[in-house]
Design a protein that fits this description.
about 35% helix, ATP-binding, cell membrane, about 20% strand, binds adenosine-5'-triphosphate, about 290 residues, membrane, Rossmann fold
Protein backbone atom coordinates (compact mmCIF):
# COMPACT_ATOMS: atom_id res chain seq x y z
CA UNK A 1 0.00 0.00 0.00
CA UNK A 2 1.42 3.41 -0.88
CA UNK A 3 0.13 6.94 -0.48
CA UNK A 4 0.46 9.12 -3.55
CA UNK A 5 2.44 12.28 -2.93
CA UNK A 6 2.28 15.44 -5.09
CA UNK A 7 4.39 15.97 -8.19
CA UNK A 8 8.00 14.89 -8.69
CA UNK A 9 9.45 18.24 -7.52
CA UNK A 10 7.76 17.94 -4.17
CA UNK A 11 9.22 14.51 -3.38
CA UNK A 12 12.17 14.99 -1.02
CA UNK A 13 12.62 11.36 0.06
CA UNK A 14 12.26 8.46 -2.33
CA UNK A 15 13.23 5.04 -1.02
CA UNK A 16 12.65 2.15 -3.36
CA UNK A 17 13.08 -1.58 -2.78
CA UNK A 18 15.47 -1.02 0.11
CA UNK A 19 16.94 -4.18 1.58
CA UNK A 20 19.53 -4.22 4.35
CA UNK A 21 21.13 -7.34 5.72
CA UNK A 22 23.41 -7.43 8.73
CA UNK A 23 24.98 -10.84 8.31
CA UNK A 24 22.03 -13.20 8.57
CA UNK A 25 19.67 -10.57 10.00
CA UNK A 26 17.42 -8.97 7.42
CA UNK A 27 16.68 -5.53 8.88
CA UNK A 28 14.85 -4.17 5.82
CA UNK A 29 13.18 -6.17 3.06
CA UNK A 30 12.34 -4.25 -0.10
CA UNK A 31 11.01 -1.22 1.80
CA UNK A 32 9.66 1.63 -0.35
CA UNK A 33 8.58 5.06 0.78
CA UNK A 34 8.13 8.48 -0.79
CA UNK A 35 7.80 11.62 1.30
CA UNK A 36 6.69 15.01 -0.01
CA UNK A 37 8.16 18.30 1.12
CA UNK A 38 6.51 19.45 4.34
CA UNK A 39 5.02 16.07 5.26
CA UNK A 40 5.16 14.84 8.84
CA UNK A 41 5.57 11.08 8.73
CA UNK A 42 5.65 8.64 11.64
CA UNK A 43 7.36 5.25 11.42
CA UNK A 44 5.68 2.71 13.67
CA UNK A 45 6.58 -0.90 14.34
CA UNK A 46 7.77 -3.32 16.94
CA UNK A 47 11.27 -3.13 18.31
CA UNK A 48 13.55 -4.62 15.63
CA UNK A 49 11.14 -3.92 12.74
CA UNK A 50 13.71 -1.73 10.98
CA UNK A 51 12.71 1.86 11.86
CA UNK A 52 16.17 3.05 12.92
CA UNK A 53 17.83 1.25 10.04
CA UNK A 54 15.53 3.04 7.59
CA UNK A 55 16.24 6.44 9.17
CA UNK A 56 19.98 5.78 9.17
CA UNK A 57 19.91 5.06 5.43
CA UNK A 58 18.31 8.46 4.81
CA UNK A 59 21.28 10.14 6.48
CA UNK A 60 23.85 7.91 4.77
CA UNK A 61 24.83 6.20 8.02
CA UNK A 62 24.10 2.78 6.48
CA UNK A 63 24.76 1.42 3.01
CA UNK A 64 21.95 -0.61 1.42
CA UNK A 65 22.42 -4.24 0.51
CA UNK A 66 20.18 -3.43 -2.46
CA UNK A 67 17.66 -0.81 -3.50
CA UNK A 68 17.70 2.94 -3.89
CA UNK A 69 17.67 5.80 -1.36
CA UNK A 70 17.17 9.25 -2.87
CA UNK A 71 17.08 12.28 -0.60
CA UNK A 72 16.71 15.84 -1.92
CA UNK A 73 17.31 14.50 -5.41
CA UNK A 74 20.55 12.68 -4.63
CA UNK A 75 21.27 8.96 -4.47
CA UNK A 76 22.60 8.84 -0.89
CA UNK A 77 24.70 5.62 -1.07
CA UNK A 78 26.71 7.07 -3.99
CA UNK A 79 27.79 10.10 -1.97
CA UNK A 80 31.04 10.26 -0.04
CA UNK A 81 33.18 12.93 1.65
CA UNK A 82 32.29 16.53 0.94
CA UNK A 83 29.14 15.73 -1.06
CA UNK A 84 27.75 13.48 1.69
CA UNK A 85 28.53 16.12 4.30
CA UNK A 86 26.78 18.74 2.16
CA UNK A 87 23.64 16.60 1.97
CA UNK A 88 23.77 15.82 5.68
CA UNK A 89 23.99 19.52 6.47
CA UNK A 90 20.50 19.86 4.94
CA UNK A 91 19.12 17.31 7.42
CA UNK A 92 18.86 17.47 11.20
CA UNK A 93 18.87 14.28 13.28
CA UNK A 94 17.37 13.98 16.77
CA UNK A 95 17.99 10.82 18.80
CA UNK A 96 16.41 9.13 21.81
CA UNK A 97 19.49 9.76 23.96
CA UNK A 98 19.80 13.51 23.08
CA UNK A 99 23.60 13.09 22.68
CA UNK A 100 24.48 16.38 24.35
CA UNK A 101 27.91 16.99 25.84
CA UNK A 102 26.96 16.99 29.56
CA UNK A 103 29.78 19.20 30.81
CA UNK A 104 29.24 21.95 28.23
CA UNK A 105 26.76 24.77 28.56
CA UNK A 106 23.42 24.56 26.80
CA UNK A 107 24.51 27.30 24.38
CA UNK A 108 27.76 25.50 23.45
CA UNK A 109 25.80 22.32 22.80
CA UNK A 110 23.50 24.19 20.44
CA UNK A 111 26.51 25.75 18.70
CA UNK A 112 28.00 22.32 17.96
CA UNK A 113 25.14 22.01 15.45
CA UNK A 114 26.99 24.57 13.32
CA UNK A 115 30.38 22.81 13.40
CA UNK A 116 29.98 21.50 9.84
CA UNK A 117 30.11 25.07 8.52
CA UNK A 118 33.21 25.98 10.56
CA UNK A 119 36.83 24.98 10.03
CA UNK A 120 38.80 23.39 12.81
CA UNK A 121 37.81 22.54 16.39
CA UNK A 122 36.06 25.02 18.68
CA UNK A 123 36.71 25.13 22.40
CA UNK A 124 34.74 27.61 24.49
CA UNK A 125 32.03 30.06 23.62
CA UNK A 126 34.53 32.76 22.60
CA UNK A 127 35.69 30.60 19.68
CA UNK A 128 32.37 30.83 17.84
CA UNK A 129 31.49 33.81 15.61
CA UNK A 130 29.05 36.25 17.19
CA UNK A 131 26.50 35.79 14.40
CA UNK A 132 26.30 32.04 15.23
CA UNK A 133 25.94 32.76 18.94
CA UNK A 134 23.02 35.07 18.17
CA UNK A 135 21.44 32.42 15.94
CA UNK A 136 21.89 29.79 18.66
CA UNK A 137 20.30 32.06 21.26
CA UNK A 138 17.40 32.61 18.86
CA UNK A 139 16.88 28.85 18.55
CA UNK A 140 17.05 28.47 22.33
CA UNK A 141 14.38 31.12 22.62
CA UNK A 142 12.33 29.17 20.05
CA UNK A 143 12.44 26.02 22.18
CA UNK A 144 11.72 27.99 25.37
CA UNK A 145 15.14 27.64 26.99
CA UNK A 146 16.80 31.01 26.53
CA UNK A 147 17.10 31.43 30.30
CA UNK A 148 19.12 28.19 30.50
CA UNK A 149 21.75 29.16 27.88
CA UNK A 150 24.69 29.32 30.31
CA UNK A 151 23.73 26.33 32.44
CA UNK A 152 25.51 22.96 32.09
CA UNK A 153 23.52 20.61 29.84
CA UNK A 154 23.45 17.84 32.44
CA UNK A 155 21.54 20.05 34.88
CA UNK A 156 18.46 20.01 32.62
CA UNK A 157 15.56 17.56 32.68
CA UNK A 158 15.21 14.97 29.91
CA UNK A 159 12.52 16.97 28.11
CA UNK A 160 14.64 20.12 28.29
CA UNK A 161 17.71 18.25 27.00
CA UNK A 162 15.71 17.02 24.01
CA UNK A 163 14.62 20.61 23.34
CA UNK A 164 18.31 21.60 23.35
CA UNK A 165 18.97 18.80 20.85
CA UNK A 166 16.19 20.22 18.65
CA UNK A 167 17.75 23.70 18.87
CA UNK A 168 21.10 22.14 17.91
CA UNK A 169 19.50 20.47 14.87
CA UNK A 170 18.00 23.84 13.84
CA UNK A 171 21.50 25.36 13.65
CA UNK A 172 21.89 23.56 10.32
CA UNK A 173 18.78 25.29 8.99
CA UNK A 174 17.64 21.84 7.84
CA UNK A 175 15.06 21.02 5.18
CA UNK A 176 14.43 17.60 6.66
CA UNK A 177 14.31 16.53 10.29
CA UNK A 178 14.89 12.88 11.11
CA UNK A 179 13.96 11.79 14.62
CA UNK A 180 14.63 8.33 16.02
CA UNK A 181 12.39 7.66 19.04
CA UNK A 182 12.85 11.25 20.26
CA UNK A 183 10.60 10.78 23.29
CA UNK A 184 11.27 7.15 24.23
CA UNK A 185 13.16 8.26 27.35
CA UNK A 186 10.61 10.86 28.46
CA UNK A 187 7.50 10.80 30.63
CA UNK A 188 4.13 11.25 28.85
CA UNK A 189 3.81 14.97 29.63
CA UNK A 190 7.32 15.86 28.43
CA UNK A 191 6.76 13.61 25.39
CA UNK A 192 3.67 15.59 24.41
CA UNK A 193 5.53 18.88 24.87
CA UNK A 194 8.54 17.81 22.80
CA UNK A 195 6.39 16.37 20.01
CA UNK A 196 4.20 19.51 19.91
CA UNK A 197 7.30 21.62 19.67
CA UNK A 198 8.68 19.56 16.77
CA UNK A 199 5.37 19.83 14.95
CA UNK A 200 5.09 23.57 15.55
CA UNK A 201 8.61 24.21 14.25
CA UNK A 202 8.06 21.90 11.27
CA UNK A 203 4.88 23.76 10.30
CA UNK A 204 6.49 27.19 10.73
CA UNK A 205 9.64 26.31 8.81
CA UNK A 206 8.06 24.02 6.20
CA UNK A 207 10.28 21.18 7.44
CA UNK A 208 9.76 17.62 6.28
CA UNK A 209 9.83 15.26 9.27
CA UNK A 210 10.31 11.50 9.46
CA UNK A 211 10.07 10.29 13.04
CA UNK A 212 9.98 6.83 14.59
CA UNK A 213 7.75 6.38 17.63
CA UNK A 214 6.53 3.60 19.87
CA UNK A 215 3.40 5.30 21.19
CA UNK A 216 0.42 4.59 18.93
CA UNK A 217 -1.85 7.33 20.37
CA UNK A 218 0.84 9.94 20.04
CA UNK A 219 1.62 8.83 16.49
CA UNK A 220 -2.03 9.10 15.46
CA UNK A 221 -2.55 12.54 16.98
CA UNK A 222 0.81 13.93 15.87
CA UNK A 223 1.64 12.60 12.40
CA UNK A 224 0.14 13.45 9.01
CA UNK A 225 0.91 9.99 7.81
CA UNK A 226 1.65 6.63 9.39
CA UNK A 227 4.11 4.18 7.88
CA UNK A 228 4.07 0.79 9.55
CA UNK A 229 7.02 -1.58 9.41
CA UNK A 230 6.95 -5.26 10.22
CA UNK A 231 10.03 -7.49 9.84
CA UNK A 232 11.62 -4.81 7.64
CA UNK A 233 8.66 -4.51 5.27
CA UNK A 234 6.32 -1.55 4.85
CA UNK A 235 2.94 -3.03 5.74
CA UNK A 236 0.97 0.21 6.15
CA UNK A 237 1.31 3.62 4.51
CA UNK A 238 -1.68 5.86 4.98
CA UNK A 239 -2.81 9.30 6.22
CA UNK A 240 -3.18 9.38 10.02
CA UNK A 241 -6.54 11.13 9.80
CA UNK A 242 -9.35 8.64 10.01
CA UNK A 243 -7.02 5.76 10.85
CA UNK A 244 -8.28 3.72 13.80
CA UNK A 245 -6.11 2.32 16.56
CA UNK A 246 -7.29 -1.19 15.72
CA UNK A 247 -6.03 -0.76 12.14
CA UNK A 248 -2.67 0.42 13.47
CA UNK A 249 -2.45 -2.62 15.76
CA UNK A 250 -2.37 -4.81 12.66
CA UNK A 251 1.14 -3.45 12.03
CA UNK A 252 2.13 -5.40 15.11
CA UNK A 253 0.54 -8.53 13.73
CA UNK A 254 -2.23 -8.21 16.30
CA UNK A 255 -5.93 -7.97 15.54
CA UNK A 256 -8.17 -6.74 18.35
CA UNK A 257 -11.80 -7.79 18.26
CA UNK A 258 -12.87 -5.86 21.36
CA UNK A 259 -11.88 -2.72 23.25
CA UNK A 260 -10.63 -4.82 26.16
CA UNK A 261 -8.41 -6.82 23.86
CA UNK A 262 -7.14 -3.60 22.24
CA UNK A 263 -6.24 -2.22 25.67
CA UNK A 264 -4.45 -5.45 26.62
CA UNK A 265 -2.38 -5.37 23.42
CA UNK A 266 -1.50 -1.71 24.06
CA UNK A 267 -0.24 -2.49 27.56
CA UNK A 268 1.84 -5.36 26.17
CA UNK A 269 3.32 -3.14 23.44
CA UNK A 270 4.09 -0.31 25.81
CA UNK A 271 5.84 -2.76 28.18
CA UNK A 272 7.87 -4.08 25.24
CA UNK A 273 8.76 -0.51 24.22
CA UNK A 274 9.83 0.33 27.78
CA UNK A 275 12.01 -2.80 27.84
CA UNK A 276 13.62 -1.82 24.53
CA UNK A 277 14.29 1.73 25.83
CA UNK A 278 15.79 0.33 29.05
CA UNK A 279 18.04 -1.99 27.03
CA UNK A 280 19.26 0.99 24.98
CA UNK A 281 20.06 2.86 28.24
CA UNK A 282 22.00 -0.15 29.53
CA UNK A 283 23.89 -0.59 26.27
CA UNK A 284 24.73 3.14 26.18
CA UNK A 285 25.86 2.99 29.81
CA UNK A 286 28.11 0.03 29.06
CA UNK A 287 29.62 1.82 26.04
CA UNK A 288 30.31 4.99 28.04
CA UNK A 289 31.81 3.27 31.08
N1 LIG B 1 24.62 -2.60 13.15
C1 LIG B 1 23.86 -3.68 13.24
N2 LIG B 1 24.43 -4.92 13.24
C2 LIG B 1 23.68 -6.04 13.31
N3 LIG B 1 22.33 -6.04 13.37
C3 LIG B 1 21.71 -4.84 13.36
C4 LIG B 1 22.44 -3.62 13.30
N4 LIG B 1 21.55 -2.59 13.32
C5 LIG B 1 20.33 -3.14 13.39
N5 LIG B 1 20.41 -4.49 13.41
C6 LIG B 1 19.30 -5.44 13.47
O1 LIG B 1 18.37 -5.07 12.44
C7 LIG B 1 17.04 -5.24 12.91
C8 LIG B 1 16.30 -3.92 12.83
O2 LIG B 1 16.85 -3.05 13.80
P1 LIG B 1 16.39 -1.54 13.99
O3 LIG B 1 17.25 -0.94 15.05
O4 LIG B 1 16.33 -0.86 12.68
O5 LIG B 1 14.89 -1.74 14.54
P2 LIG B 1 13.93 -0.67 15.23
O6 LIG B 1 12.58 -0.91 14.65
O7 LIG B 1 14.50 0.69 15.10
O8 LIG B 1 13.95 -1.14 16.75
P3 LIG B 1 13.81 -0.24 18.09
O9 LIG B 1 12.37 0.21 18.11
O10 LIG B 1 14.12 -1.20 19.21
O11 LIG B 1 14.78 0.88 18.00
C9 LIG B 1 17.14 -5.79 14.32
O12 LIG B 1 17.04 -7.19 14.24
C10 LIG B 1 18.52 -5.36 14.77
O13 LIG B 1 19.04 -6.24 15.73
Amino acid sequence: MSTQVGNEDSVVIDVSGLTKEFGRTVALQGASLTVARGEIVVLLGLSGSGKSTLLRHLDGLETPTSGSVRVLGQEVPRLTGRRLRALRSRMGFVFQQFDLVPSLTVLENVLTGALSELRGPRIGLWSYPKRLKLTALGHLDRVGLLDRAYQRADTLSGGQQQRVAIARALMQDPEILLADEPVASLDPESSEQVMSLIREIAMDEGLTVVCSLHQVDLALSWGDRIVGLRHGEVVLDTPAEGLSKAEVMEIYGRVATSTTELEAIEVELSDAAADAAAETHLADGALRS
